[in-house]
Design brief:
5 strands, 3 helices
Length: about 150
């Protein structure tokens, strides 16, 4: 097998493992009272794995999944990744404030996802302009799950 095919196979396995980890993360979060608003929200800066609401806080959650024998996945969250998450949050918040009702259709998946999130928050009587948020990491390795809340660049 060529090195290119091995790399593609490895990327596919990583993608499958990541999606399975995100599903497990959503189930765990829901069991703790979180309301999942979106998964895999993409902007030009990157992807936010999970956007959830808990106790009137928006949680932007990065999921990291590793084998049980690995070092803790907390070391896989870099400042570069956090910068991308914060930039994506800025895009989402700006878009939610500026999305016009007439723009609901004929728009990209990104705009449709933004509209879906906005509608979900409105249905829950959450005012996005006054809603607080935090960035969290949900770490999965083996049978362990840990939520690190309110991580930052500092």
């Amino acid at each position: 097998m060529s090195s290119q095919k091995l790399a593609q196979s490895s990327q596919k396995q990583t993608h499958i493992k990541g999606r399975a980890g995100e599903q497990r993360a959503c189930e765990w979060l829901e069991s703790k009272g979180f309301k999942i608003l979106a998964r895999n929200y993409c902007t030009q800066f990157g992807e936010i794995d999970i956007i959830a609401l808990h106790d009137n806080f928006l949680h932007f959650i990065e999921v990291k999944t590793f084998a049980a024998s690995s070092l803790s996945p907390r070391y896989a969250i870099t400042s570069k990744k956090l910068q991308k998450i914060y930039a994506s949050i800025d895009v989402l918040l700006f878009a939610c404030h500026n999305l016009q009702p007439s723009q609901k259709s004929n728009f990209s998946k990104y705009a449709c996802d933004t509209h879906k999130i906005t509608q979900g928050l409105q249905a829950l009587d959450i005012d996005l302009q006054n809603c607080q948020y935090c960035v969290d990491a949900l770490l999965i390795w083996g049978n362990s799950i840990e939520l690190l809340e309110n991580i930052s660049l500092e």
